[in-house]
Amino acid sequence: MTTSTDKLRNIGPKSAAWLRQVGLRTREDLAAAGTVEAFMRVKRAGFKPTLNLLYAIEGALQDCHWQEISEARRGELIAAAEAAIALLPPPRYKPAAAPVTTTQMGEDTMAMPTLFDEPAERE
């Protein structure tokens, strides 16, 4: 029987939506990808998953509450996820915009025409 990720133990609505968006729609899809690969697909898609998602996926696959996952297994999952994250290309940051300054025009300064000013009449 095919079980939707919407119905899996530990997988809430937000996590289920993330998993669907990366092509993991059933328990079978999740099992085929594996815990770390499923987590990495979500991360590579631009979402910001936490370790709770990693544990939730493992718990869903093991059919246990995520808090029941042993410390040793959690350590293995973290190490594998960190190794996979290290292989990701560095994020592309957009350079910060230059600071915006406002110039006040005084009465003694001649106003510059703008695109919306009426053109001067020609003689």
TrEMBL record:
Domain of life per record: Bacteria
Transmembrane segments: none
Residue stretches making up the TfoX C-terminal domain: 6-79
Gene3D superfamilies, sorted: 5' to 3' exonuclease, C-terminal subdomain (1.10.150.20)
InterPro entries for the chain: TfoX-like, TfoX_C
Protein name, entry field: TfoX/Sxy family protein
Organism from which the protein derives: Lysobacter stagni
